[in-house]
Structure formats: C-alpha cells, structure tokens
Specification:
There is one protein chain. 70% of the residues lie in helices and 0% in strands. Helix 1 packs across helix 4, helix 5 packs antiparallel against helix 6 and helix 8 crosses helix 9. It folds into 2 domains: 55 residues, Arc Repressor Mutant, subunit A (Orthogonal Bundle), CATH 1.10.10.60; 131 residues, Tetracycline Repressor, domain 2 (Orthogonal Bundle).
Amino acid sequence: MTEAKPITSRLPASDRRQQLVEIALDFFSRKGFEGTTTKEIAAAAGVTEAIIFRHFPNKQALYTAVIGHKLESEEMQNWMAKSKQCMDRNDDAGLFRIIVSSVIESYRRDPRYQRVLFFAALEGNEAGLAHHRQLSIPVYELLCQYVARRQKEGALCQDYSPGMILTAIAGAATQHAMMTEMFGFPSKESAEQVTDAFTSIMMTGIQTSNTDVNGKNK
C-alpha cells in the first residue's frame, strides 16, 4: 500500500511562507529544534517537504525565520511606534508601562515564541540566538539611549546604568508572566494592576522616607 501524498492547495508564496512559519512555531515551541522534523511540519501544512525547501533552504533557516518572525511583525512595529511616541514626549512612566504590558500580554496571548527561545538556549542553537540578538539589540540600545538622556536631564536617577533599569522593569514583567502564564501560579491582580504596580515601583521605589539606603529605620 503506497503512502498517500499530502494535498497541496495553492497559496501565494508569501501566504505559504507565513503558514509554514506559523506551523513550525507550534512544533518548535513544543519539541524544540532537535525534536522537530520538516516532515511533520509539512504533513501538518498539507504539503510535501519539497514545498518547505522552496521557501527555506534547510530546517535551520526555517527555525531562524520563526525566531525572527515576531520581532519583524506588524505587532512589533506598532509597539515601536508607541514607544517612540512616549520617548518623543519624555513620558518615562508611559514607556515603562508599554514595556510591562507588552511582556505580560505576549505571554498571555501566545507563549510559544518565548518557549522557542528557551529551547534555543537549552539546545545551544547559536544561529537562532544570534538572529534574535541581531534583531533585538538595536531596540534595546535605543531604549538605553533614551534612559541615558533622561538621566542626563535629571528626570531619572543616575545611580544605575540604563541597562540595569531596563532589565529591572522588563525582568519583573517577564518573571510575573512566566510564573502565571507558563507555570500556572495564581495572581490576585489583573494585568492592568500588575502593570500599574511595576511601573510605580520603577518610578518611585519601595522605600519610605523613614528608611535609609540599606533599608534600616532612620
């Protein structure tokens, strides 16, 4: 008995490529690069492996496209536009709110992209990680430049490097999102309340006027 061939429906090249990236995202997020085959991606798409290799020269190229997809998406462009608007009007709290809310929303809506990045790190897929750095570092540097400028203008504390400030705000959001959306920990606060809290902590700190820098009562 011969194996049935997938039924290939005709799609424009751009639509087919998008379909393959979306299906590959699902597989790579569940099984990693090593555990996923192009054969099963093709089967899920209803095409032959040859169709995949028309769009991507090999599995690594498809994997790299999956990693870069979100950072090159319209969603990311909208995020950048809103962030630049905050930076143009020196809205520090607004920028931090956008950072926190976007992290939480991305985990809530679809954590597959983060899972792919975790797999890339665990499997040591340097090509995929390098592509992620290539796309994300310019965004990080732009944010650092803004924080540094606001520090020089006296609007933000100069005791910490811009990188540490951004790591603190994004890291808090990421940790909360991972615990609640990936690990299933309950949260009493809504996403908006969490965003408000982390933004407030970043802008005002948690010490009262009755404590010194070491947290001791004055």
